[in-house]
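Why should sequence recovery work at all? Because a backbone constrains its sequence more than one might expect. Tight turns favour small or flexible residues, buried strands favour hydrophobic ones, and helices have their own preferences. The token representation captures these environments compactly. In the example below, the structure is given first.
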């Protein structure tokens, strides 16, 4: 069954500080986004990679590809007003409705190949699949009156990407109108009544969002969590 991945890199990275979007910041000598694409290509050279970028970032991305001699095959599509619209734009390039498609954050370069394979295998069986990890810290729930209460952390999971679905399922879900409570692809699929299956993720699969995340990411690179070329 053919595999696609839509890599969404539409953020401006405001929480990172500075003018350079976080997906373009060098990580161990190479932009974060390149490491993410390389990770999926090394998982399978046959995977069809679709990169969603804001239109005004695309010329800069192409210049980076030339500068770093980046040759991982991929197609580029314009980002949308929200993540929902960006994913829908990416889906428009998926022309095989009998395939499976993953949606992945461009600033998550450390997802393991085991997790990618697990999610694709489960989705090939017709499931909507989301990788998760357990919560290790104590969790408190904030109430409207300003007070808080401890909740059982065993009842909660931290959600990661790639989230993987059959192409037909995801296209059906994204034919809906946008809603503010669509925070990820699983929430879009659930809105049409489909249950979501949880797969074991890997804790190194962090979303690089803040300067501290970059410190952690540099350390992960030096312990060879991801391939270094």
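From this structural description, the recovered sequence reads:
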């Amino acid at each position: 069954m053919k595999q696609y991945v839509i890599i969404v890199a539409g953020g401006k990275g405001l929480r990172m500080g500075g003018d350079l979007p976080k997906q373009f910041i060098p990580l161990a000598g190479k932009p974060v986004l390149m490491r993410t694409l390389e990770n999926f290509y090394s998982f399978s050279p046959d995977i069809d990679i679709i990169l969603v970028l804001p239109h005004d970032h695309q010329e800069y991305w192409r210049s980076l590809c030339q500068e770093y001699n980046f040759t991982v095959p991929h197609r580029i599509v314009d980002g949308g007003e929200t993540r929902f619209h960006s994913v829908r734009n990416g889906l428009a390039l998926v022309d095989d409705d009998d395939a499976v498609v993953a949606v992945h954050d461009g600033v998550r370069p450390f997802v393991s190949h085991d997790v990618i394979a697990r999610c694709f295998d489960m989705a090939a069986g017709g499931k909507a699949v989301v990788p998760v990890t357990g919560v290790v810290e104590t969790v408190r729930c904030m109430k409207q009156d300003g007070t808080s209460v401890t909740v059982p952390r065993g009842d909660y999971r931290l959600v990661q990407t790639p989230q993987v679905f059959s192409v037909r399922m995801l296209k059906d879900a994204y034919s809906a109108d946008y809603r503010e409570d669509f925070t990820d692809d699983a929430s879009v699929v659930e809105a049409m009544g489909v249950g979501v299956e949880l797969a074991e993720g890997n804790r190194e699969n962090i979303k690089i969002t803040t300067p501290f995340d970059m410190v952690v990411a540099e350390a992960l690179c030096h312990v060879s969590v991801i391939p270094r070329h």
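A few observations help interpret the result. The helical segments are 32-43, 58-67, 83-91, 113-124, 167-173, 185-190, 211-222.
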